[in-house]
Structures are given as C-alpha cells and as structure tokens.
Prior knowledge:
This protein is an all-alpha fold. It has 8 helices and no strands. It has helices at about 5-10, 10-15, 30-45, 50-75, 85-95, 100-115, 120-130, 130-160. Helix 4 runs antiparallel to helix 5 (about 85-95) and helix 4 packs antiparallel against helix 8 (about 130-160). The longest helix has 29 residues, at about 130-160.
Amino acid sequence: MTPTFSQLIRSPVLFLAFGFGSGLAKKAPGTFGTLAAVPLWYGLQFLTPALYLVVLVITFALGCYLCGAASQKLGVHDHGGIVWDEFVGYWLTMFMAPAGWLWALYGFVLFRIFDIAKPQPIGWADRRVHGGLGIMLDDILAGIYAALVLQGTVYLLTIF
C-alpha cells in the first residue's frame, strides 16, 4: 500500500520516511528521494566536520526508527517510497566533500550507482538485515562506498 500525500501530511513518521513526499514518485522513488536530499546537504556542508558527524549519527538513529515504523504502518518491509535512508546515505557520501554543485552531482551519481548495484556487502545487508536498521544499513554502506570514490577523486585531482 502506498499512502497518499494527504496521509503523509497527517503522519509525521510517514512524512519524514517518505522524504517530505519525494518517495511518492511513481518511478524511481529512491532517485527522487536522493534528489530531495541535495538541497538539504547544501546547508549541511557549512557545518564543521564534527557537527556534520553528529547530524549523521542523529539522522541515522532517527532513520532506523522512522523506516521501521513506516514499514510496520504500511505492512511492507522496505517499501520503495521510504527514502529517508537515501537522504542519510547521500549526506554520508558528501561528508567532507568539496563545496559546489559539480561535486554534489558527482556524489549523487556515485551514491545512486552503489545504492542500485549493491556490491557486497551492500547486497548481503539488504537481504539479511531487517527492520529499520536493515532499511538504513544498505544505504549507509552505499554512502561509504560512494564517499570513498568521491574522496579518492578529490585526492587524485589534488596530486595531478
């Protein structure tokens, strides 16, 4: 069951889990959820690294609750419209990334590639870990992979 936008507005859990409504996209809700996370990252990029990490930890913990509660409410594990995990995964990708929309786009593409392809252990986590933690974990791992590639690119560009 996919909720309507009016149902999202009446449920703070669903509203946040569905990424302020971005998860209601008929096609590619994860991509639309990640896209909705980009403008929020723009504000996050100005935080100190320590404060940014605090935000990541809080949004991860909140996401475990939100995603689990939304799944229970909908009766579907990891409903495609639940995109809070994409928000946090993208923000993790962009931790300590250079400022600018080109880097934001690069991080977006990298995160979507790893989130969709699910190389190991992302695929394992996606299949084996359940509940809110399971919904969040595969996107956290995809965010780590994407961040490593992004930071590797930054490093290579600085030495050449």
